[in-house]
Amino acid sequence: MKFTHRLFGLPIAASLALVSGVAFAQAGQTVKVAFIDPLSGPFANVGQNILKSWQFVADKLSPNAAGVKFQFVPFDNKGSPQESLNALKAAIDQGIRYVVQGNGSGAAAAIEGAVAKYNERNPGKEVLYVNYAAVDPSLTNEHCNYWHFRIDADTTMKMEALTSFMKDQPDVHKVYIIGQNYSHGQQVSRYFKEDIKRKRPDVQIVGDDLHPIGQVKDFAPYVAKIKASGADSVVTGNWGQDLTLLIKAAHDAGLNANFYTYYASTSGVPTAMAQGVGGKVRMVAYAYNSLPGPSIKIQDEFKKKFNDDWYTTATYTGVVMLADAMAKAKSTDPVKVAAALEGLHFKSFNGEVEMRKSDHQLQQSLYISEWRKADAKNPYSVENTGYNFQKVKEIPAYVASTPTSCQMKRPS
Amino acid sequence: MDVSYYLISLLNGLSVGLLLFMLASGLTLIFSMMGVLNFAHASFYMLGAYVAYTISAVIGFWWALLLAPPIVGALGAAFERYALRRVHKFGHVPELLITFGLSYIVLEVVGLVWGRQSVNFRPPESLRGPLFTIIDHVGSLGFAWGEPPAECKGVANVICTQFPSFRAFGMGIAMLMLVSLWLLLTRTRIGLVIQAALTHPQMAESLGHNVPRVLMLVFGGGTALAALAGVIGGALRVTEPSMAQAVGAVVFAVIVIGGMGSLAGAFVASVLLGVLDSFAVGSDQSLLDLFRVLHMAVTPESFGYALWSVKISQVAAILPYLLLVLILIFRPKGLFGTREG
Fold first, then answer.
1. Domain co-membership, A97 together with A209
2. Closest by CA position to A286, among listed A359, A370, A349
3. Measured between CB atoms, which of B5, B13, B162 is closest to A254?
4. B69-83: per-residue pLDDT in tens?
5. How many interface pairs between A and B have CB atoms less than 8 angstroms apart?
6. Residue ranges of the alpha helices (H) in B35-80?
7. Where are chain B's structural domains?
């Protein structure tokens, strides 16, 4: 018996050694990744949660395909594009060559531009930027850049998905759009109006409001206006505190409308929703709580460790994507990894996804989910409220996909 | 736009205005006594909210409402006694700077003690529901106490708007405070001494009153009022490190518009700004509508269209400061102020 064991064991061990020795030149390295997002101010809770999410997922997925260790280094950009540039500079000064950022398309545009300039001027020291949540379409269209990779779906894709669900809802007649006054809020409004006009021309837009981001502490006047408009549905791209306070004010005033959101899962919002919302809350995203696959287990473990929710599942996508690309490039050099990322197919928590070569926009399935009481099929409790997001519609990647006008300039 | 909308907007505006007044009253009192703008005033507002949050987690909201203002007031008095009084002899600029410095210190201390995220400070259970519901049938208006009645659900053409109890409670506290402050200043002995020390400090001193102690009392009292506003404001809105900055600038606008040192002015200006904001947010008019009334043709191709098409709701946040500038230009002493310039 002993003999057979050795007989079988030897070649396996030898081949393992061979693989790790030859293919994984980058194995064992620690890759530092700068996390540039708000860690103070009105959106601090969101930033803090996502910072934990990145490191947690990276540790959970270790050992990864490339055999590297990811270390996320936090930089507080206070939600401002200007501070983001300072943070980026600090990160580069520390020798960090990977950047992740997501909260705020304004900050994203600043980082994308700064990374592009830096890489042009400092060949050999290139920095690669993974955008996990900033959904401004221009980042992968007119302002697209080779060093920017987006793993969230952009607003045109999300709106395509959301309106394809809304068009089948007979109770949608009067829609009120409210958003934060910056590129993201403006685009949610613009693309919703375009898409719904095409799909349900009978739907009436009864209001279209923009408010200063992170500044409004009392949404009662806005809710009074929504109420007076007679809206049955509210479409909003708000996130974090701006959505929490909107939902809170809607509850206080007894607003009886359905909410169609992008970010109802962000920190603080679920707790506000559990107090009661007049209508239903629906969300368009690349995930929902009981999505079959590896995310359920990570979600539970994250809850156990931090008593918090792992809602930015794009962190999983990001870690797998970078690890796969590093394995393919056999290096952690951003120049080689960026080349490997173009057109990369890989398996994320929500199935097979593709980093589209033409504009560096990830192509993935999207889901419409609804905020409902937990049940046997959907047991997870978001923010310990006894509720969670349950799937009501799936939009496959090829349907959610939108064309790009990007004319990518690749380094020669 | 219907009647219930105007009513609820008015109530919302009043509740914001009264909250502002609680803050502004302390600030304007301190200014009229010492001739010094207390830049750290909003920081005491924030401290009030955080201290109340900590107390309410242990022994409940009502104790927090009772205890947080005196605790913060004592801190304010100590600051006056040990810091402000020492720099008083160097003139107004050092006094101004020391309060400015204090606002930064408070901000950092709050961040260190309670963290940089918002904390979950909420009204007590008994005040979370609606106080009353405005029922707007077509052409008729009705009221119902408490939860919305059955007719609100499922019946078309009925708009029911709830008014939260805690908002009403905050308004009640502010009114109570206004009346008691007025009684204190005009009807009591200590009030008379304060008034005397305001206008004729030397004479009050030579009559045997301890004017520095009166100053300390007023400073402590003013900060306690700010803390009281903080308890209400923190529970009504969000308790977070940026809450001081969020109200700080508006409060200065209030006391300048109302007239420096005038309590009545502070009251009128607070309510004015609160109601103005509430209605401005709700109105979608822009300069385009004005041009239309004047029969001027303005199209998207016209010069400056982006500017003309900005809706009032989008500029609501800057209206207080616009008013501030206009007041400073046309009536520098403010609406009810007594000082020139």
1. no
2. A349
3. B162
4. 999 999 999 999 999
5. 93
6. 41-59, 61-79
7. 3-124+166-241
Tell me if A16 is assigned to some domain. Answer: no
Strand order in the sheet with B130-137: B140-145, B130-137, B159-164
Which of A267, A263, A277, A233 lies closest to A369 in space, CA to CA? A263
d(CA A353, CA B18): 54
Residues present in chain B in total: 341
pLDDT tens for each residue of B111-165: 899 887 778 888 888 888 888 888 777 767 777 887 777 777 666 667 778 889 9
Residues of the domain holding A142: 30-153+293-364
Question: Are the beta carbons of B277 and A221 separated by less than 8 Å?
Answer: yes
**Pairwise CA distance, residues B208 & B296, whole Å:** 70
CA A176, A182, A187, A193: dihedral to nearest 10 degrees? 30
Q: Which residue has the tokens 């200007």?
A: A82
> Is the per-residue pLDDT at A19 higher than 50?
no
A-chain residues within 8 Å CB-CB of B111?
A: 40
pLDDT at A370: 95
Whether residue A267 is found in the same domain as residue A127: no
- Which residues in chain B land under pLDDT 50? 340-341
Residue A94: inside a domain, yes or no? yes
Nearest to A210 among B8, B152, B314 (CB): B314
B193's CB contacts (< 8 A; 6+ apart) are B204, B209, B214
Q: How far apart are CA A261 and CA A271, in angstroms?
A: 16
Tell me the nearest-neighbour CA distance from B112 into chain A, angstroms. Answer: 12
Residues 221-250 of B with CB under 8 A from A: 236-238, 240-243, 246
* CATH number of A303's domain: 3.40.50.2300
Q: How confident is the model at residue A355 (pLDDT cuts 50, 70, 90)?
A: very high
Phi and psi at residue A346, to the nearest 5°: -150, 170
Number of helices (H), then strands (E), in chain A:
13, 15
Q: Which residues of B touch A221 (CB under 8 A)?
A: 9, 12-13, 277-279, 281-282
Residues of A in contact with B241 (CB under 8 A): 40-41
Is ipTM > 0.90 here? no
Instruction: Tell which A residues from 151 to 190 touch B, by Cβ distance under 8 Å.
Output: 181
Tokens standing for residue A303 = 């809850």
Q: Residue A170: inside a domain, yes or no?
A: yes
Looking at the structure of chain A, the number of domains it has is 2
Give the pLDDT of residue B154.
61
The predicted structure's pLDDT at residue A111: 97
